Amino acid sequence: MALSISIHPWRVIAAINVAFFSLFLVLAAFPLVHIARVAFKRFTRIVILITLLYCTKIASGGLLLYLLGHLSDSNSNKEINIFIASMVLASLAPAFLLMCNFKLVGYINHLERGDNVPKKHVTLFGHIFSLRRNIVTLLRGTSEERLDATEGIYWTLVIVTIALSSAGNGVSSSNYTAARGLIRAAGILYLIEWIILIGLIVYAIRTVIVMKRVTYQKYVNFLLILAAIAAIFVGVRVCAYIAQAFTLKKGYYGFGQSRFSYLTGEWKLYAFVTFMPECIASGIWVVILWCLSKHLKHERYNTGSESPLVPKADDSDS
Q1: Average pLDDT taken over every residue of the chain
Q2: Could you tell me where the DSSP H helices lie in the chain?
Q3: How do residues 120-146 score in pLDDT, each as one tens digit?
Q4: How far apart are CA 215 and CA 31, in angstroms?
Q5: How many helices (H) and strands (E) are present in the chain, helices listed first?
Q6: Who contacts 219 (Cβ-Cβ below 8 Å, separation ≥6)?
């Protein structure tokens, strides 16, 4: 009896994504550990957090791979709900990673200026639930305060979007009109989130370029190319999400079950536009981390001058 093996495109895509994030986990570990050891030991807990988040990303990708293999055989509500939960986990992980990296940039900016690190930089979720204060700060604050406020607004939108999309999927079988309205609202917020995210990415790249360190120059072009590719995939993903939200069919479950995803091959394109941007975005942050690590190593070991990024052992030394 011959053994027949069927290979579906969306399974291959999911497997590639899991492999990508496994590679990023290994690549990101070295510069993060170096930065934590050389610049400031308090950042070690952020390294642990990012490592756990990458593990969550890989685990959710594995769960997605398993569920995609069984959704064609069983289309039960339970499996769909588990699939949606895995998608939420997969979407949260790179957002957490992004936030942690901006905390790192904030630490380094303060240390380079010789300032004390503000307490608000230590609290990861300090500004999430203060939307009014964040908006006022965004309009009137300093550049550093505006960055923190933008981060807080971004996370507020992420939480609201997850709540709206989850509610829309929960009522889609019983109240189509309400489900469509909720998912459309989530789609609009999702678009706003990506606009903010692109702005933050541009800010990070500009920060890297403005430093004008010799060790950065060979990374800048590669970084810009990655950013351009990521912007293309982000655009595709946003268009897919908006089209999906506005073509939701009655009796269908929100994510991946609209006329848009059906006409483009059920889960195939949806899996592609969902995970590939996050793979590329993670690659960008790995490059940024390597740049920061090289910068610290260059300052400490190659220039002969003490960098403000490196803690002083004793103020009395001459």
Answers
A1: 54
A2: 9-38, 44-71, 77-112, 131-140, 143-171, 176-211, 214-246, 259-263, 267-301
A3: 443 444 445 566 777 787 788 776 677
A4: 14
A5: 9, 0
A6: 208, 287, 290, 291, 294
Contact 260, 247 (CB under 8 A): yes
Cα 160 from Cα 179, distance rounded (Å): 15
Structure-model confidence comparison of residues 73 and 202, the more confident one: 202
Q: What tokens does 80 get?
A: 């769909």
- For 67, residues 6+ apart whose C-beta sits below 8 A from its C-beta are 79, 82, 83, 86
- Answer whether 0.90 is exceeded by the pTM: no
User: Tell me, what amino acid is at 44?
Assistant: T
**C-alpha to C-alpha distance for 268 and 275, rounded to whole angstroms:** 11
Whether the Cβ atoms of residue 276 and residue 17 lie closer than 8 Å to each other: yes
Question: What tokens appear for 308 in the block?
Answer: 């403000």
- Total length of the chain: 318
The residue whose two tokens read 């011959």 is 2
- Joined together, the tokens standing for residue 131 give 């939307």
